[in-house]
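Complex 405.
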Amino acid sequence: MKKTLIIGAGGVGNVVAFKCAMNVQTFGNITLASRTVSKCDTIATNVKEKTGVTLSTATVDADSVSELVELINTTQADIVINVALPYQDLTIMDACTQTGVDYLDTANYEHPDTAKFEYKEQWAKDQQFKDANIMALLGSGFDPGVTNVFCAYAQKHYFDEIHTIDILDCNAGDHGYPFATNFNPEINLREVSAKGRYWENGSWIETDPMEIKQVWDYPEVGPKDSYLLYHEEMESLIKHIKGLKRIRFFMTFGESYLTHMKCLENVGMLGIKSVEHKGQKIIPMEFLATLLPDPASLGPRTKGKTNIGIFAKGVKDGVEKTVYIYQITDHESCYAEVLSQGVSYTTGVPAMIGAKLMLEGTWQAKGVYNMEQFNPDPFMDELMTQGLPWKVMELDANDTRRVDT
Ligand code: NDP
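Predicted structure with NDP bound:
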């Protein structure tokens, strides 16, 4: 029987734990470990109640390679699913190569002191993984993750060459709080307050944060203000999608979210350098994260839908065409199934699917890989049956989902 180690017991860890338990025939003995073991125990109790599957729990500091190595050896894991924070990616990868165990994550490495995320340091471990005869699958969430697989699927089935891709991430959910983030507040706010960036004709073009706004019309949601952000999947997609000339990423934000964020930024609350406060050093962003609602607590309050997809234009047999592949998730249905809101759900389900394909040997290779490097078909099939059904719209070349053109 296989053995699975999940690290991280936040919103995403909860969904991964549930979904692995629902696929226990693949995942076998499942251990959920995190810094705060009581969070693992609560999830394990809920999973047992709803699925009948017993999870083991453990405490680990994932910043410590030696603690991780000890835990991996104790659990005899066949795979480590990292759904802690991006800061832990490198230590967990090192522990995997030391113990010879496959690795998967959902977000690329970030240094705590620099709000910059890129694959450089994780890709640099490719030889280390090859030498250890194991595999790392990077970014197996929704975006990155499913969006990469959508691009690979479009390339395989709809185009000879894709020329432009717009990744469109719409969360039309409402949790009723004036301001809260749907996943880890620190990671989320670092991402959206950073400069925007997109890639065109071989170069990265930088924009001010939220400088470019477009209104896209999302099926089952409607038109929404969408802002250009830098997002990590673009860095690997420009390497792997044939003939690409431009790739951009847009995310929806409401007026209230942006006003709160601007205000917090203006008063210094998004700072990531420590400041002196009454004789103590505090990092403003960390303090803000303490004040904000825990994303895992948004589940019972969140209503509405997410709609995330890719809008690709290119040529097939000499004819220009446009394809839109997207997935819609309902927050309340997620809560009914696994006690989670939709953003954690849409991240946790693909993490489970990536790990399932690795454990079953369907996606297997030695070294460090991004999602679009594998055959997208088995992943797309799993999405259909594991809770994230998707749709394809074939549009004529001039069609656009944008309403402000
Ligand atoms: P949360 O903050 O809710 O949970 C993070 C978990 O990691 C917590 O249980 C936390 O423990 C644990 N943790 C943090 N540091 C350590 C450490 N040093 N050792 C052990 N455990 C640690 O985050 P989310 O669940 O919202 O997000 C999880 C991951 O998913 C993040 O990397 C995020 O970037 C990624 N993500 C990816 C998306 C995608 O589509 N690709 C979308 C959304 C999120 P404690 O409880 O003690 O703080």
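The mean pLDDT is 95.
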